[in-house]
Amino acid sequence: MKLSFNSWVYAAFPAWLPLRSLEDTIDTLAEIGFDGIEIGAAAPHGFPDHLDAARRRDLVAHLERRGLEVSALCPALGGGPGYNPVSPDAPEREAGLRYMQACIELASDLSCERVIFLGGYRRFGQTQGDAWRLAVESLSACGEHAARHGVKLVVEPTSADSNLLDHAGDCARLIDDAAVDAGIMLDTYHIFHRQDEVRDALRSAGDRLAYVHVADLNRDAPGTHRHFGSMVRELRELGYDGWLSAEVGFNRREPDPDGLARASFAHLREIVDAPVEVG
Predict the structure, then answer these.
(1) 52: alpha, beta or left, given left = phi > 0 and alpha = psi -120 to 50?
(2) Does residue 11 come out as left (phi exceeding 0), alpha (psi in the -120 to 50 range) or beta?
(3) What pTM was estimated for this model as a whole?
(4) CB neighbours of residue 25 within 10 Å
(5) In what helix (H) or strand (E) does residue 236 lie, and over which residues does it extend?
(6) Is the pLDDT assigned to residue 55 strictly greater than 60?
(7) What confidence score (pLDDT) does residue 131 get?
(8) Judging by DSSP bridges, how do beta strands 69-75 and 2-6 pair with one another?
(9) Predicted confidence band at 269 (pLDDT cuts at 50, 70, 90)?
(10) Measuring CA to CA, which residue among 246, 248, 252 is closest to residue 269?
(11) CA 40 – CA 107 distance, rounded (Å)
């Protein structure tokens, strides 16, 4: 398994501090030892409209110099533009689709194989059926665009932040209803929010599991409160050999992002490198 770190805690979503440059973030993560960076698709790091062709080429060259891959592009829904794919308001949905399509194109330009797809938020007074129908339409449209650009979508249930996709089963049903080639991703933070058992949640995704976010309680570094060794053993039993991406610290003003990154790497490296039990 390869280790990555999400850039939110170095960027401006949803807090403005500490706000490091993307190049500085890449340098720091490379020095720590990560294999990849997960880029948040918001200013100043990865908002597609702010990155012209020359900037994208420069980023690719910098990543290559530091030996880092882009493990995924993580969209920023909510906030000013909204970008809710199941909004009852057509202009918001259409803007969100354009944003997701731009994220897919950016991922392709950065040689990134996957973009995270978020199901959105059912608004007050909106029926579950209507929200689900719009989510299917959004995933279908995004899936077609991703296929044209050689990018795969990974659908994430975000139970702590939204109210449409709660668990891997919801993601599987959405993928089937949209008839797209997409995987499922899981985030331990949301699993803890539901008070689900991590190993059972992973099993429920099965061979569709394509990406994993790792965070401890309160989005602290993994290993702060809980040991994640059982999670890695379960992933091995499932045959998962993809990315473990730490998405930590961005739910607050964080004065020590480097400390979070180093603590995350130390725990993940320890459990990934631990001898495999036989018998």
Answers:
(1) beta
(2) beta
(3) 0.96
(4) 22
(5) helix 229-237
(6) yes
(7) 98
(8) unpaired
(9) very high
(10) 246
(11) 11
